[in-house]
Amino acid sequence: MQALRTLTAHYAAARTARVGHSAAVVHVGRDVPREVVLAAGLVPVRLPGAPGRTGAGDHLFGAGIDDVARTQLTRVLDGDLASCAGLAIGSDCEGSVRLFLHLWEVQRVEPHADVPPLAFVDCGHLPQPSTRAYNRVRFDEFVDQVARWTGRPIHDDDLAAAVATANGTRRLIRAIGELRTATGGPRLSGADALACIGAAFCLSQADFAVLVGALLEEAADAPALPGVPVFLTGSSHDHAQAYELIESCGAVIVGEDHDWGGLAGQSDVDEYGPVREALVDAYWAGAPAASGYGIAERAEQTARLAARAGARLVIAWLREHDPAPAWDLCGQREALAEAGIPLLELPARPYRGAADDCVARVDEALCGVRA
Q1: What DSSP line would sit under 42-65, residue for residue?
Q2: What percent of the chain has pLDDT over 70?
Q3: 219, 231 contact by CB (below 8 A)
Q4: Which of the residues 11, 188, 213, 369 could staple to 198 if both were Cys, CB 3.0 to 4.6 A apart?
Q5: Residue 186: its pLDDT value, please?
Q6: Residue ranges making up the domain that contains 52
Q7: How many CA atoms lie within 13 A of 360 on its CB side?
């Protein structure tokens, strides 16, 4: 399918090529409101890591930091973002926070000309009015920061138009997900779906919409894929190694609950109320990710999404130095047991590296649900 190949190529290029351009704001993490960037007339581009890449990030971070953040730091200091209008980093996980702090200190002590202007977007997720009020102040600060980068104010009408655009992208992401849960069997593998969704983070909404429209037409005539339907939980995935390994064992990943996958399309922003309030609420209380949300709501979401996707097995794939997802496992196991879906927990893996020792465990679990 030509559209699939094009989307996959954009997804792959985002991890290896220089990112963005003078009309782009690169962001790290799910908590950065992309609508603010769109409202400024710029293109939001999400920064993935670069598996296997080494450099300044290894020296500055040392041991014990998530390799996603380590490789992102290397990319920034190597000049991959040199032409961008700005870099916005969220507080969605410890690695993102460390990334911002290190870059801020590097720029204070020994400025790199190729590092774009920085902004930190702190968004809490506690279900308290005080957290929401805090987020509103931080949101307004981010709006003002992006306006300074462009030299023109951002009005609420601009934000409202951006919300409509971003919701359109979310609908397209949901349409991609529906190809994996289609009547008669999935028309798209999990690895391919991850690539298509990932392309949404590096393309304009207009280009993404054209390609996804073509993908939906092409997939309508595609044969159903064989394999045991599996749902993936645990750490986020900005590359498809884990997906490819699991699917090589005879599975099809029909859904996931991380923000580089289907979770990115779960929650629209309200288009009918005060726009700033709607954006703050959407990013404060959106679809729960592993970091920053309660165990009970994460467990409920995993069980609900896995059941809705028709999964017969849930696999928890954890990444080294990414501790948050492990806290969810006990609650997820209980919620999934009530739904009649078994959970396979795999040992924490490197961000990029051999995972052949997982094959036997995946094979065994798939045989168990086939029986």
Answers
A1: -EEEE----TT--SHHHHHH-TTS
A2: 99
A3: no
A4: 11
A5: 94
A6: 1-371
A7: 1
Which contiguous run of DSSP H or E holds residue 121? strand 118-121
DSSP 276: H
Classify burial at 119, counting beta carbons within 10 Å of its beta carbon; exposed 0-12, middle 13-18, buried 19 or more: buried
371 has a pLDDT exceeding 70: no
- Output the six-digit token pair for 206: 């207009």
pLDDT at 290: 67
Task: Tell me what pLDDT residue 285 has.
Answer: 85
SS3 content of the chain, % helix, strand, coil (to 5): 50, 10, 35
**CATH number of the structural domain spanning residue 210:** 3.40.50.11900
Check: CB of residue 188 under 8 Å from CB of residue 179: yes
* pLDDT at 15 (0 to 100): 78
DSSP assignments along 319-367, one per residue? BTT--HHHHHHHHHHHHHHHHT--EEEPPPB-SSS--GGGHHHHHHHHH
Tell me the per-residue pLDDT of 280-303, one tens digit each, with 9 for 90 and over: 999 998 877 767 788 898 999 999
Could you tell me which residues come within 8 angstroms of residue 7 by beta carbon, excluding any fewer than 6 positions away? Answer: 195, 196, 199, 211, 212, 215
Determine the angle formed by the axes of helices 67-77 and 94-109, rounding to 10 degrees.
30
Q: What is the spatial distance between Cα 344 and Cα 354, in angstroms, rounded to a whole number?
A: 19
Domain count, the chain: 1
pTM of the model: 0.93
Q: Which run of H or E residues covers position 137?
A: helix 129-150
